[in-house]
Amino acid sequence: MKNRIQYIxxxxxxxxxxIIWFNHIxxxxxxxxxxxxxxxxxxxxxxxxxxxxxxxxxxxLLLDLVSNTGGVFAATAVFITYFRKIYFxxxxxxxxxxxxxxxxxLSLQQKILYFGIFSLMTQxxxxxxxxxxxxxxxxxxxxxxINSLITLxxxxxxxxxxxxxxxx
Amino acid sequence: xxxxxxxxxxxxSLLLFVFLELISLILIIKTHDYARLKTHSFQTAMAGKxxxxxxxxxxxxxxxxxxxxxxxxxxxxxxxxxxxxxxxxTLPDILPEQFQYIPAYxxxxxxxxxxxxxxxxxxxxxxxxxxxxVITPNGIAGVVQKTSSHYAKLISILNKSxxxxxxxxxxxxxxxxxxxxxxxxxxxxxxxxxxxxxxxxDTIITGGMSGIFxxxxxxxxxxxxxxxxxxxxxxxxINSFSDMTNLGPVFVVKNKFKSEIDSxxxx
Lengths: 168, 267
Fold this sequence. Notes:
The complex is a heterodimer.
Chain A: H1 2-22, H2 38-41, H3 50-67, H4 72-91, H5 108-131, H6 134-138, H7 141-167
Helix pairs in contact in A: 1-3, 3-4, 4-5, 5-7
Chain B: H1 2-10, H2 12-32, H3 41-58, H4 63-86, E1 99-109, E2 115-120, E3 133-135, E4 140-147, E5 152-159, E6 164-168, E7 174-178, E8 186-193, E9 203-206, E10 218-227, E11 233-240, E12 249-255, H5 258-266
Antiparallel strand pairs in B: 1-2, 1-12, 2-5, 3-4, 3-12, 4-5, 6-7, 6-9, 7-8, 8-11, 9-10, 10-11
């Protein structure tokens, strides 16, 4: 329960960061990292992740409300929260139970791969839900890729700062 | 029945996932459907209040660039004033009071999505209404989509669903401005007839036919053009005069006779 409250607080902090700062910065003139997904990616993995899905939906919807984007961020947040379970189901050791996986115990390479895949997925989903046209999304591949890499950089930075300090 | 309930409870996460995605998709479709966007003023008001606080801090970092763009606009207006003194316009059909300008500030500006929107700090209480145009000191920004008491949400010109009537400067050839969806400062003009005397470097201005923007507001400069196969028109590529990633002061354009013109058009 204490852990759950910690995760919710992290989620609120990252939402505020996204709304106040990351929505307004322009790295190299164009790129705005989407960092509000970081707390969703570090939520504990569970077989029944209904609470995680509700948390993701609420945080996405709050961001949509501020950004005037309908349900783009809510749909993206719910999608990545559900599909990370599938990601770990595929990548885990067959003998291992999904509940036993601890994201803070992953190696740096595993974390870069995990956060990298989901940063890219976040960008692709945001543009897909916004455009509703795969052709249009593909035509923006360079932007999506660079924005994903910048998002990944910030996520790894936050992970090193927060997670490592928490572990100590 | 019990088996069904047991099966459904085992798939609780999947069902919740589908349900939440459906709600999100309905919200997205509702937001993107231009024809159905009439209310939602609560969302506009909420977004406006939050973004106004953020913008009050952020706008100080961009004061220099806002000042530069306002100085450029002043210089252009002084030039026009001088030209008008030398060759005064005396045509009786010019209506100098047709358009009123309401100064406003951009408090939130999207440019990374396909259906981008802008929030400004003026709303119904300042006489801002849907379908009013919004211009920047250097060009055009968008069209008011919906309003709350103190804020208005615009469809940015960086929005795939918006087409704006434009013309080739010093001619009466008109077409439609649209955003291809990639670079926030590059646009296309479609449906401009092939007999129009186009060359690179020419200026595209607002056409004034929709009544949303007055005629003659500079929009952008032609960087290239090509005929559309099978059609007697060009597609023209332009660079926008407004930096759409850095919007500050804007002016809402109120056409006093728009409803009169629209009622005649639709009669």
